[in-house]
Amino acid sequence: MGLTGISLVLFLIVHAGINACVFADMADPEENGAMFNKAAHFMGSTVLIRITEIGLFAGIILHIVQGLLLTAENKKRRTVGYAVAYTAGSKWYSRSMGLLGTLILLFLIMHLYHFWASARFTGRGLEPVTYNGVEMHNMFGLMKATFSDWKVVIVYALGCLSLYYHLAHGFQSAFKTLGVHNKRYNAMLSSLGYGFSAVITIVFILMPLSFVLGWVG
Amino acid sequence: MEHYNMNLTVKVWRQKNSRAQGNFESYSVKNISSEMSFLEMIDVLNEELIVEGKEPIAFDHDCREGICGQCSMYINGKPHGPWQANTTCQLHMRAFKDGDTIVVEPWRSAAFPVIKDLMVDRSAFDRIVQAGGFVSVNTGNAVDGNSIPINKDAADASFAAAMCIGCGACVAACKNSSAMLFLSAKVAHLALLPQGDPERKSRVMNMVAQMDKEGFGACTNTGACEATCPKEISISNIARLNHEYLRAGLTAEK
Known about the structure:
The complex is a heterodimer of chains A (about 220) and B (about 250). With about 220 residues, chain A is mainly alpha-helical. Chain A has one domain. Helices cover about 75% and strands about 5% of the residues of chain A. Chain A has 9 helices and 2 strands. Chain A has helices at about 1-20, 25, 35-45, 45-75, 90-95, 95-120, 140-145, 150-175, 185-210; strands at about 130, 135. A two-stranded antiparallel ribbon of chain A has the order 1-2. In chain A, α1 (about 1-20) packs parallel to α9 (about 185-210). With about 250 residues, chain B is an alpha+beta fold. Chain B folds into 2 domains: about 5-115, Ubiquitin-like (UB roll); about 125-250, Alpha-helical ferredoxin (Fumarate Reductase Iron-sulfur Protein, Chain B, domain 2, Orthogonal Bundle), CATH 1.10.1060. Helices cover about 35% and strands about 15% of the residues of chain B. In chain B, α5 packs antiparallel against α6 (about 200-215). The longest helix of chain B is centred in the last third of the chain and has 16 residues, at about 235-250. Chain B starts with a strand and ends with a helix.
């Protein structure tokens, strides 16, 4: 759980970093998503990254399978439940990782349909765009079209919020599972965990929000 | 604090034996002193039940000083009741007020089957300790106490872990019924000392294997165990246990 979780955390950093290229539009009105489109084209057309993508999907599936097995095993350990639940000793999100993970998965299916499936297979809503003689997908345009609807933006924000709470527990828990027990590092990892969760969530939510509010595009 | 008397409703889990179906019974107890301990309140209730010709409530207790780990009641949704760093026997009735309803349940875990009413079988913990929670030494004259130098920080951390009284509140509090806080305390207090070093790897491997065999759940680091532990065993011991397990798994010869 911890190892696959950390590998997915590493992916989030790359994902947020690449997608933050859409904000280049704010500094240069002539830009019109060129930096983001080039970055997306690089990610889609580089063999090494496509191989890493297989690893990413394997990581996601493994993380889900581990989570399902863990939950199923742990559920069996208390056959008669309590009349009064003990909730004061732990955070609600620490107890709800399965639920939060399911919400993220549902969000992910929609998210993959919106962008990944379109870029790889269906080409739904994609226009070609040419920079320096290289033709590529106008992913920026697809983002702009997708995030023109407030309903989609709100669903994305809620998906990212689920991710925040999932990470708020998961980040620090992963390091405990891997055996980091040094007091100083534990305190550091705990603050880093909350900080990382917040920054990742804010950066992701800002993207659809920036499109719908017309800050970019 | 001012002394007062109170009338209470106590909802207790009653179960004839491990195979019987249990259910809650409500009892009213009157004129309970705020200076009584929780177990004394149950004693008063049991005396009344005996006078009425009813079966008294079975519960575990021994020292009533907060050091033996026998008392094991899950009171109003928390192992050992509402106070922090406290055992049931050291919970006093001033924690409650007149007219309160108190719900008392046994520890709930498949690895801790109910024997009767509020008593559960915690022998799984004994078998985990038997699997490796010891040091092997040659008998003979007692060695001088200071013959092996021990780092002060390690000694303190070891002692803090050794505070565990094996009551099982961690298992009762955990949503996964995990025994990791208990096991980690037992592993950590020996792993930190030179005396525990020769058996360090086999100890952690054997004790973890026994824990899994007993049917405890897996840890998800929610922290409920640490929050309810009467001896305030730190959850960082669990991370230390994971480290010990990883180290032994990668380097042990068998």
